[in-house]
């Protein structure tokens, strides 16, 4: 779509039938209402941290009012291009080098807003602005590459340290679990051992009690006292033969060689215990007690003679 401005009268020719007076009127300006693309030349700009950049861009605009575009400014495209360059330098001076790369979109939006505010009286509207290339000085580029490499090494070191820490934590956790399991196993072993020992002690006590009951029953039978006397004598001779085997210090009675008197003394104690009346029980004396004692003494003398001969 084209809009033409007539010279002389300053009238704007619109679509449809327009009449021009020869010699007085002629077409002077032809404005296109389509979107126009303009390359912004490369220019130098200094950032906030005093880094010089070479930057260029592309400008997209459209003529909204052909009359203002024809009579409001001499060359609208050149005016908008210069405005875009000056606005770009102004906006770059507010940002550091790192923010120029991170905030590229916000920088484009700021340039578009600044151009639209200034170009409103020209009948031109800026649709968008795009930065094409940003050229950094070689030394700055090298320092940026070194910074990137340092950052990568830092991340690698951090990742390696985190891996080492996780490994150490896993090893410590494994040792902890191993110790816990070992302690639980030892506890269970001690419990089982204690239960086994308790069962053994109980079994021994039951066996001993049963032996005592059997022995008591045997002593109440005929000639039980003689058998008990013989057992005491055998145990005395056996214990006397083991003296001074485990230690060089022993305690002996004054009549250690008189086996008869020692056995008689032991049997006297045994007889006193077995014949002692129970509390509250009536006293009774057996008629054959003297005969039992005499037969016991005779049997004991025979056994002692046999032990001496052996």
TrEMBL record:
Low complexity compositional bias, start-end: 284-295
Localization per Swiss-Prot or TrEMBL: Mitochondrion inner membrane
Gene Ontology CC: mitochondrial inner membrane
Membrane topology: Lipid-anchor
Keywords: Mitochondrion
Residue ranges of domain Band in the record: 1-148
GO biological process: mitochondrion organization
Gene3D superfamilies: Band 7 domain
Record-linked InterPro entries: Band7/mec-2_domain, Band_7, Band_7/SPFH_dom_sf, STML2-like_C, Stomatin_HflK_fam
Primary localisation category: mitochondrion
Similarity annotation: Belongs to the band 7/mec-2 family.
Function: Mitochondrial protein that probably regulates the biogenesis and the activity of mitochondria. Stimulates cardiolipin biosynthesis, binds cardiolipin-enriched membranes where it recruits and stabilizes some proteins including prohibitin and may therefore act in the organization of functional microdomains in mitochondrial membranes. Through regulation of the mitochondrial function may play a role into several biological processes including cell migration, cell proliferation, T-cell activation, calcium homeostasis and cellular response to stress.
Protein name: Stomatin-like protein 2, mitochondrial
Organism: Aotus nancymaae
Annotated gene: STOML2
């Amino acid at each position: 779509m084209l809009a033409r401005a007539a010279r002389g009268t300053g009238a704007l020719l619109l679509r449809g039938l327009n009449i021009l007076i020869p010699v007085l009127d002629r077409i002077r300006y032809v404005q296109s209402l389509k979107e126009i693309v303009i390359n912004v030349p490369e220019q130098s700009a200094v950032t906030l941290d005093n880094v010089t950049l070479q930057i260029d861009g592309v400008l997209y605009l459209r003529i909204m009012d052909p009359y203002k575009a024809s009579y409001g400014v001499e060359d609208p495209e050149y005016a908008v291009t210069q405005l875009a360059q000056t606005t770009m330098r102004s906006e770059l001076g507010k940002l550091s080098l790192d923010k120029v790369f991170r905030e590229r979109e916000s920088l484009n939006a700021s340039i578009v807003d600044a151009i639209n505010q200034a170009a409103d009286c020209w009948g031109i509207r800026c649709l968008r602005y795009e930065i094409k290339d940003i050229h950094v000085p070689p030394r700055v580029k090298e320092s940026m590459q070194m910074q990137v490499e340092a950052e990568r090494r830092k991340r690698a070191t951090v990742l390696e340290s985190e891996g080492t820490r996780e490994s150490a934590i896993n090893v410590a956790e494994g040792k902890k679990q191993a110790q816990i399991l070992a302690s639980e196993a030892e506890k269970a072993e001690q419990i089982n051992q204690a239960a086994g020992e308790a069962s053994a002690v109980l079994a021994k006590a039951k066996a001993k009690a049963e032996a005592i009951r059997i022995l008591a029953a045997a002593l109440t039978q005929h000639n039980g006292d003689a058998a008990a006397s013989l057992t005491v004598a055998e145990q005395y001779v056996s214990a006397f033969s083991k003296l001074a085997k485990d230690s060089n210090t022993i305690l002996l009675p004054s009549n250690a060689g008189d086996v008869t008197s020692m056995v008689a003394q032991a049997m006297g104690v045994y007889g006193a215990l077995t014949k002692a009346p129970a509390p509250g029980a009536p006293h009774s004396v057996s008629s054959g007690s003297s005969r039992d004692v005499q037969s016991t003494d005779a049997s004991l003398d025979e056994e002692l003679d046999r032990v001496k001969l052996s």
